[in-house]
Amino acid sequence: MIKAARIALSLTAVVGVGATFAACGGVPGNAVATVDGEAIDKKEFTHWMTVAAKSTGQANAAVPDPEADYKKCIAAKRKATPAPAKGQPKVTDDQLKTQCKQEYEQLRSQVMQLLISFQWIQGEAGSLDVKVTDAEVKKSFNEQKKQSFPKEEDYKKFIATSGQTEADILQRVKLDLLSNKIRDKVVKGKDTVSDKAIQDFYNKNKARFAQPEKRDLRVVLTKGKAEADKAKAALDGGDSWTAVAKKYSIDDTSKASGGKLPAQAKGTLDKELDDAVFSAKKGELVGPVKTQYGYYVFTVTNVTAASQQTLAEAKETIKQTLQSQNQQKALDTFVKDFTARWKEKTECSEGYKTSDCKNGPKATPTPSVTGTVPEGS
């Protein structure tokens, strides 16, 4: 998707990384990280920091300025901060600086994780010989653009305000397609399910394919026993359920339909009512039955016996369930290996480290290839 919300860097923005070779190991001075020896240039980092700031939706949003000790950020926040209420202390510059620092670190972490994860996908695609053509990219881009921006002027406005170029978006689309093809390759052949596996699943989960007995009811619910006795007497005297429910019932739902309460499954009603309903004979007028909600008078109008789906009836559902489980297991295994391999190839400069860097902080949730371009944790 290239809707504004999805294109926002905070979700799945894509970077076309201008890389340089790090011949002697370590991270070059003009880079924030290297992935398998390829450098992620500081210019790209700066570009996507700007996009990230704009994606917050704040008017005139800008990247906080750590090099200048956040002076511009503090000044902007000071201007936007309302005067304190009478008797309340003024927000200090140190407090505003703390806010600026937190915002910068959040954006920095977000951008680094995205830049790294997109390098990982391109690298993995290369090692798996997974490719997408320019024609595939253009077709997907045009389809998504048409869906997200029916009017060309809306798209142009987005480009003007998001900080992104069309080349950025095309690169994002390419990586989405690569990610999907990697996923498809990982799960290929994992949809084979044997008859024995289906039989075993059915035997272990028979309750999942069972339907309890259900009964259709006519009910009148009253606050007190005296009203319930009157309602029952009226029904015994030949008054219609519609008239009696309208006059006596306090249950608005069944009252509006002449007391009808269809398809009540065994075990789902208030215990006292459930016991009475599922021991009553069809057509018998029963009550009053005291419950926590009041007193019920009821009759059973129809009984649907409990049923059990046969293996043949449940086979297709079970097959789809096991296919999904097998595919997810394959993806989980792949992602664990994928993350470990590429993290070992990723080194970050001081001040730019994330959990995706081998020299970064302890790992947190990592990129995924389960349907969208992987993101950092």
Report on this model:
- This protein has 13 helices and 9 strands.
- The two termini are about 20 Å apart.
- The chain has helices at about 5, 40-55, 70-80, 95-125, 135-150, 150-160, 165-185, 195-205, 225-235, 240-250, 250-255, 270-275, 310-345, and strands at about 30-35, 40, 210, 215-220, 260-265, 285-290, 295-305, 305-310, 345-350.
- It is of the alpha+beta class.
Q: How many helical elements?
A: 13
Sheet with most strands: strand arrangement: 5-4-7-6
Question: How many domains, in number, for the residues?
Answer: 2
How would you spell out the order of helices and strands? HEEHHHHHHHEEHHHEHEEEHE
Mean pLDDT: 86
Number of strands: 9
Q: Can you summarize the main beta sheet?
A: 4 strands, antiparallel
Overview features:
377 residues, alpha+beta, Chitinase A, domain 3, 2 domains, 4-stranded antiparallel sheet, 13 helices, 9 strands, 49% helix, disordered N terminus, disordered C terminus, signal
